[in-house]
Amino acid sequence: MTRLTHEAAGTFAIAPTPFHDDGRVDEASIDRLADFYTEVGCDGVTILGILGEAPKLDGAEAEAIVRRFVKRAGSLQVVVGVSAPGFAAMRSLARAAMDAGAAGVMIAPTPGLRTDDQITAYFSQAVEAIGADIPWVLQDYPLTLNVVMTPAVIRRIVMDNPSCAMLKHEDWPGLEKITALRGFQKDGSLRPLSILTGNGATFLDFEMERGADGAMTGYAFPELLIDVVRLSKEGRRDAAHDLFDAHLPMIRYEQQPGVGLAVRKYVLHRRGVLGSPAQRKPGSTLSDRARGEVDYLLSRVARFDKRASMTRPASGVDLTFDTHIAANPKGECQIQSSTGNL
Amino acid sequence: MTRLTHEAAGTFAIAPTPFHDDGRVDEASIDRLADFYTEVGCDGVTILGILGEAPKLDGAEAEAIVRRFVKRAGSLQVVVGVSAPGFAAMRSLARAAMDAGAAGVMIAPTPGLRTDDQITAYFSQAVEAIGADIPWVLQDYPLTLNVVMTPAVIRRIVMDNPSCAMLKHEDWPGLEKITALRGFQKDGSLRPLSILTGNGATFLDFEMERGADGAMTGYAFPELLIDVVRLSKEGRRDAAHDLFDAHLPMIRYEQQPGVGLAVRKYVLHRRGVLGSPAQRKPGSTLSDRARGEVDYLLSRVARFDKRASMTRPASGVDLTFDTHIAANPKGECQIQSSTGNL
Amino acid sequence: MTRLTHEAAGTFAIAPTPFHDDGRVDEASIDRLADFYTEVGCDGVTILGILGEAPKLDGAEAEAIVRRFVKRAGSLQVVVGVSAPGFAAMRSLARAAMDAGAAGVMIAPTPGLRTDDQITAYFSQAVEAIGADIPWVLQDYPLTLNVVMTPAVIRRIVMDNPSCAMLKHEDWPGLEKITALRGFQKDGSLRPLSILTGNGATFLDFEMERGADGAMTGYAFPELLIDVVRLSKEGRRDAAHDLFDAHLPMIRYEQQPGVGLAVRKYVLHRRGVLGSPAQRKPGSTLSDRARGEVDYLLSRVARFDKRASMTRPASGVDLTFDTHIAANPKGECQIQSSTGNL
Amino acid sequence: MTRLTHEAAGTFAIAPTPFHDDGRVDEASIDRLADFYTEVGCDGVTILGILGEAPKLDGAEAEAIVRRFVKRAGSLQVVVGVSAPGFAAMRSLARAAMDAGAAGVMIAPTPGLRTDDQITAYFSQAVEAIGADIPWVLQDYPLTLNVVMTPAVIRRIVMDNPSCAMLKHEDWPGLEKITALRGFQKDGSLRPLSILTGNGATFLDFEMERGADGAMTGYAFPELLIDVVRLSKEGRRDAAHDLFDAHLPMIRYEQQPGVGLAVRKYVLHRRGVLGSPAQRKPGSTLSDRARGEVDYLLSRVARFDKRASMTRPASGVDLTFDTHIAANPKGECQIQSSTGNL
After folding, report:
1. How is residue B43 annotated by DSSP?
2. Which of A204, A278, C329, D2 is such that its CA lies 20 to 30 A from the CA of A330?
3. Extents of the domains making up chain B
4. Pairing of strands D214-217, D194-197
5. Taking the model in full, what pTM does it have?
6. C-alpha dist (Å) from residue A258 to B15, B171, B179, C122, C252
7. Is D145 in CB contact (< 8 Å) with chain A?
């Protein structure tokens, strides 16, 4: 598999970890997930991230998941989350992931880091632990991790560690941070760096315009991410926003802390990709009421984007979507809707 | 002025505090704000809230703002934020606010409260400090305040303190919390309580369906809040969501921590309500880039809701909007102007 | 090995994990530590605790350390810290520890728990994960873990989970908490529970008087803990305080966050127990200046307690201390050597 | 009154704010406190600090306390804590304090500051708000304020703001921080700066040796602080430690978060300085058990230092202590004790 470089771009889906209802890892669903991301056209996939329930796995399970995912993913670049409370565990998972063929790893700062120096020291130590030969993604996610990195600190980390290939940007607010980092590159103080954005895609429309290279997040319709990224790169601003806005009510609903994973697994189960929406304990579940809200939102999105219509059986694996947007000869975002004039 | 009761409902706008560019309080804009909220049809207004830059005011300024706002607001119920580091300051502002004619006050938990007992004790002490005769709003805003209250803790606070008239609900996620509190009322363990929701209206559509009585938040188009609340109460689910969804890209943009106030002041300035978008120091400002993004979003919202079109001069005070949205015969989200059947 | 029960009492030393200078686990020093704690008269030892650098170990290393420690410890009860980010890892270490002959395990709340219900639910889930047959110690350490448990919450956890045998008490301030818990037992609302205290022994003198059953902490002179616990239980208040006060300057120095472990390893190295003072990376080290301060403090303690005199070579393993303190006829704090009537 | 400069040194007592049992400010006790600090030989006094219950006062009360304290304090330099949620309140108290004759003000970082840039910007804004003509003390107290400043950040603040005269150092651990700052001065990168240390004096012995200029803390025996500072400056290391160690059990007890203020007010009340140990609500009180522990500790300290003996009536104002230590011709710390051989 090709290794991650600063030229990585497009859409990297954040994959959930599939479990059976009884908490065992669901290997068949791993395969279906890998196929699904391949078929819809993702450029990569990130596994064992924060929403991948990674801390609930023991070391052997984590390595087995990596091996199965990488093997099935074929041409997709696989990034493996290796954040851990200590560097011994981080190193052993990182080495195992690369041996299995991963494209790179992702490292989040350990909670509790406060000063600029603590943060930069942490990543230098992490790189020393895993080895400077492994390409890695720096995760900047203050809302959940409670570690705040300024653009200048990110620059220091990137410049100090040549093996850092990508920033997973999910600060909130974060638009000015992208602009600042791209500004550093213009003034020559920051080397090339891939920036993919997270935060459930809540700001993907403007993040692309600010200079992001793509999306790395877990929205249950990666097709939407792919289309918005592509439309933005083609300069079709209105079309990108039209499509994005049609999904935003659902994106917003999915981006609730804690609840989000349950929504994603529910939708991916309804889409026939996951065998079960179950999380390993302790996990969250959707109330009947919440499931009804998700269904309602899906039906509303489906008015504009047929891919959100849930007519196929939950157990099915028919992944032949209507993904005709890019092929439209008029160059317009032909989102299927009864009004047609979006 | 009538005092706040548990029957309060509808839309209470959270008002920013207007400043001149040099940091002085802008009294003319206070008057315009009060007129604006009255004319668009708000049921109340909340001043000196978290986004009202209250901590930047000294005591005399705060009391002067309350007096001017209450006097001008006429029939609007005015709620005054009185959260303070100590109870002496809280008491003196609360008493002054009620003397000036406010309908009630709003109290947020002091940061640092952790256990259930600490939280409930704090509000009992606050009520003892301000006096049990003042109706008050309990603010539940964990994202900013970092104090987490379960539904059972909220119930204890409400049942222990008869003068608590309302919950300002802005937990995130928060939908199940509304359902839980309404469930307590059904099982008889919680007395009647008004629930208005905040969080920039990001979930207002579903919050109303879960049982909220209305909105209390600072979205720069309170007309949208009013309409969504009314449509929801009329049971016109699709119409409520259609209108809400048209504004959601802007709502989402405004709901960025820190940046939000700058966006709101910018839009209210463009709408001719605020004389200046300035914040008192230390404040945030919008970059040119961000202003352009807001303008673009406004132009997109205006395709569906003419009230978002910014053709009037920034200094104008013409507040005669076309506030009517058509129920289009196709049942689609054709939000239109100039018909009166919303 | 006997299993931990609510009757556990006395002194359980918190053991550091010994490393060679290059970061490898130092197995010979594990044996020396086990012998040392046995010879000085500890009742138990706790390994892989917060200060045991447990997060720096991978799973296989942790299990190997448990096996070696338990095997060598002989009659000492060994408690194994099994706190982990997820329950799968917690379970596998807990089961392995009990299989190896541990007396019980210790569980700290995961950071981020806030409400009373979150905290109690966490421990119920942990017990379900490891199995209700394993005796366990509840660790209450808000300063480091940032989880605040009231006495009533501790009571709920203990009453909900019969396998909880002990509280490791290290709240600060914490004296009233011990009194409250012992009060619950007097009024019949709390079942019998062993309470050992931590916090580097900073309040051991009064904690014993408030009703603690003993000490569980890592002060580099466990002999002091043993003596203070015994003197307190014998009702010899002044003698307990005299001895305690002689060590307090050193106890205070050791109880510095972050620095403490370096001090402990340095002293245990000087005492000939650890082959190296090294921590696995990322670790803290003592400056020359700090080492000088520790040496000075040791020399001052040694004026009263000969066990603190560092005349033996650092590499030695001669553990035959003069562990006797005289009750001097004047009733003064004349701690002496070589008589056996303490 | 002379203004604070970087040459300030010695002992600045942190004064509690005296209240009557019913919560009113006790003005007579303010006078007694000022007299007491003067008579024992303090160099300065800090009022309205974190432990001065400042947030419980309204603005008018705070200014009245400053005026009374400054007037009575005579030759003592008075530092006034002006930390506030906003700069308007900070400015008005700071200006009023200087008008009343204060020597300077003290500013703590507002909670929530995280990055190095946020911290330095905050202090620049604070200086702009109060005026660059007011000498001020930078308070570095991470345990309570949750803001972490590296030595380099402190240097930036001091170098950016010429009116910063002093660092109130109370990081924990903090010894290496003093050494680092003094090192910056040796290498020429930091201008002269007074460093007084807080943290209840828990590390005063070594802080003086590391280069502190004195103490600024609220231990209820400021005489002890004065003596330790003087002995240290005279190079009488053992004598300084002997005296310090005699008080350490009490210092340690007083340094319990939350409880500390109750202990201090209790002791100052017993010493006849405060008319009441009361705190304004919400405050903490000592249990009977805790009072007994304090009395016991005082009796033990009194064996070595007669000033801790509480034979005088609580209402008395006889402040003629036996402060003969420095006058001892042998150059030894002749602490009064029945054993004589400390």
Report:
1. S
2. A204
3. 10-341
4. parallel
5. 0.91
6. 31, 12, 17, 15, 41
7. no
Residue A1's pLDDT is what? Answer: 61
D56–B87 CB contact, under 8 Å: yes
Q: Is B329 on the interface with A (CB under 8 A)?
A: no
C63 pLDDT above the threshold of 70: yes
DSSP labels, B145-170? H-----HHHHHHHHHH-TTEEEEEE-
Give me the pLDDT at residue D330, please. Answer: 37
Whether C87 contacts chain D with CB within 8 A: no
For residue B30, give the nearest of B99, B95, B76, B85 by alpha carbon.
Answer: B76
Q: Residue D1: pLDDT band by 50, 70, 90 thresholds?
A: low
Instruction: In whole angstroms, give the CA distance from residue A165 to residue A151.
Output: 16
- Partners of B155 on chain C (C-beta within 8 Å) are none
**Residue A287 with chain B: CB contacts under 8 Å:** 176, 179
CA–CA separation, D183 and D190 (whole Å):
9
Second CATH level (architecture) for the domain D10-341: Alpha-Beta Barrel (3.20)
Query: Is residue C272 a contact partner of residue C315, using CB atoms and an 8 Å limit?
Result: yes
Residue pair D118/A117 in contact by the 8 Å Cβ criterion: no
A111 closest CB neighbour out of C58, C84, C111: C111
Lowest mean pLDDT among B68-72, B267-271, B337-341, D148-152: B337-341
Half-sphere exposure of B265 (CA within 13 A, CB side): 27
Minimal Cα distance from A210: which residue of B? Answer: B289
CB pairs < 8 Å spanning B and D:
53
pLDDT at C23 over 80: yes
- Given this model, what pLDDT does residue B313 score? 42
Q: Which chains touch A (3 or more CB pairs under 8 A)?
A: B, C, D
- Is the bond preceding A222 in cis, omega lying within 30 degrees of 0? no
Neighbours of chain C (3+ CB pairs under 8 A): A, B, D
Residue A322 has pLDDT above 60, yes or no: no
* pLDDT, mean over chain B: 90
Tell me: the pLDDT tens digits for A183-207? 999 999 999 999 999 999 999 999 9
